[in-house]
Amino acid sequence: MDVKISFLNGEVEKKNYMRQPKGFVQYGKNNLVCKINKSIYGLKQNPWALYARAKTYLLWNDFAPNFANTNVYAKRVGTLFVTIIFI
User: Is 38 helix (H, G, I), strand (E, B) or coil?
Assistant: First the structure.
């Protein structure tokens, strides 16, 4: 899995705003801000958005969470035992 790309595919749940990027500010509209709809590098919510999306995917694919450690998910596939650990 490409973690860099998955970081950018996270959905932002809370409202986040940023200053207008240089070069995009229109004359007379200096005080406007941009609303962030998708994750971008530098947001503090990025790791949580990535984890929430991965958790939803794992639960949807019948992985069971470990109650002692919420970063561990497991699934039995025939004779195999698949374990995923978030570090």
Answer: strand
